[in-house]
Amino acid sequence: MFFLKILLKNTFRHKLRTVLTILSITIALIAFGLLRTVIHAWYAGVEASAADRLISRNAISLIFSLPMAYKEKIRQVDGVKDISYGNWFGGIYIEEKNFFANFAVEPESYLKLYPEFMVPDDQKAAVLRDRKACVVGRKLAERFDWQLGDLITLRGTIFPGNWEFVLRGIYKGRDESTDESQFFFHWDYLNETLRKTASIRADKVGFYIVQVEDPALATDVSHTVDQMFDNSLAETLTETEKAFQLSFIAMSEALLVIIQLVSLVVIVIIMAVVANTMAMTVRERTSEYAVFKTLGFGGWRIAVLIFGESLTITMMGCAAGIGLTFPVTRAFGKTMGDFFPVFRVEPEIFVSYVVAALTVGIVAALIPTWRAVRLTIAEGLGRIE
Questions:
Q1: Is the distance from CB of 46 to CB of 242 less than 8 angstroms?
Q2: What is the three-state SS of the chain?
Q3: In the predicted model, what is the mean pLDDT of residues 272-301?
Q4: How far apart (Å, rounded) are the C-alpha atoms in residues 2 and 21?
Q5: Please, what is the average pLDDT of the chain?
Q6: Does 253 have pLDDT greater than 90?
Q7: Integer angstrom CA distances of residue 265 from 41, 238, 329
Q8: Which among 37, 185, 234, 300 is placed 20 to 30 Å from 60, CA to CA?
Q9: Which residue has the higher pLDDT, 294 or 79?
Q10: What is the structure's pLDDT at 252?
Q11: How far is residue 162's CA from residue 149's CA, in Å, rounded to a whole number?
């Protein structure tokens, strides 16, 4: 109890310095948590991938299409349970900044292959009846205040023109990792229009989604599909949905590495801040430690005081950081929702906070403690003015 009283008094002897140090730790930990959450959000699509889904696309690039005739051939491959298809549409709503993923798909089979997109039965039936119907995610509908029955117009970039859709369904995510900001409409609507305006682009799809009977068959089915179309005008590259998602992340790998390095630099910075604070503290209390030694205090007791003060400051900053992380990340997620549809704080990040705070508190106190313990009584008392 006596040690605790001394420890608390020492910690807040210079209130402004202590408060500023705690504040710097809090801000640094929030920045660390935000950066780690951004990295996690980047991989959200990978985590949401299903082990029994394959993506088959043009072997040259995703921008090249595949013939519609491939569908039934792929369906006949042993191990294939179901198949769907679609095109990246690339439409823009009103202005460029209103970016969101939009696809032309075959709704019935697509929603069957993606049970995580939960659409009420009555809305699903309405979507299937209306060729101009579209389905949007809950977050996307909230973002633009769309209601069922609204007329939505997208300006095509890949497929020029103004395309009108009627909102017939709003899906909710089954899992936390489900992207609720996507837009789907009938592939037939796109294809019928292309037959009239650009027949050379009709009856082609951008990708096939293939469901296998057993995830263990994924590799064999992928090889079989690709071998089937070897030396054709449109060779395929078939891979698991997870590998497909990772291929996009690989394009920004350098940026992810930079973000990871910055998050580690943040920890080094707060370590320097706390080390500087503890060095100043020990220097100011040199004479006090000498008096403690004359009263019979051993070096370990002085070490406990210094380490205790350092850890008290860092753990206070850690507690404040944990308390403020949720509102800060929530606000950031709303602001950057266009780029990170799934943006949530993982509980594991708080374990990192505690580990980082303990590490910083201990490392920052090492040198000041070593100097205080080695200090002789004569040297300490000689500094009293």
A1: yes
A2: CHHHHHHHHHHCCCHHHHHHHHHHHHHHHHHHHHHHHHHHHHCHHHHCCCCCEEEEEECCCCCCCEECCHHHHHHCCCCEEEEEEEEECCCECCCCCCCCCEEEECHHHHHHHCCCEECCHHHHHHHHHCCCEEEEEHHHHHHHCCCCCCEEEEEECCCCEEEEEEEEEEEEECCCCCCCCCEEEEHHHHHHHHHHHCHHHCCEECEEEEEECCHHHHHHHHHHHHHHCCCCCCCEEEEEHHHHHHHHHHCCHHHHHHHHHHHHHHHHHHHHHHHHHHHHHHHHCHHHHHHHHHCCCCHHHHHHHHHHHHHHHHHHHHHHHHHHHHHHHHHHHHHCCCCCCCCCCCCHHHHHHHHHHHHHHHHHHHHHHHHHHHCCHHHHHCCCC
A3: 70
A4: 25
A5: 83
A6: no
A7: 20, 39, 20
A8: 185
A9: 79
A10: 61
A11: 18
53-58 and 236-240: which strand pairing? antiparallel
Amino acid at position 311, single letter: L
The mean pLDDT value for 253-274 works out to 75
The predicted structure's pLDDT at residue 350:
84
pLDDT at 383 over 60: no
Q: How far, in whole angstroms, is CA 91 from its chain's centroid?
A: 24
Predicted confidence band at 241 (pLDDT cuts at 50, 70, 90)?
Answer: confident
What residues contact residue 92 under an 8 Å CB cut-off, 6+ apart? Answer: 98, 99, 154, 155, 157
Contact 313, 365 (CB under 8 A): no
Query: Which residue ranges make up each domain of the chain?
Result: 2-44+252-381, 60-234
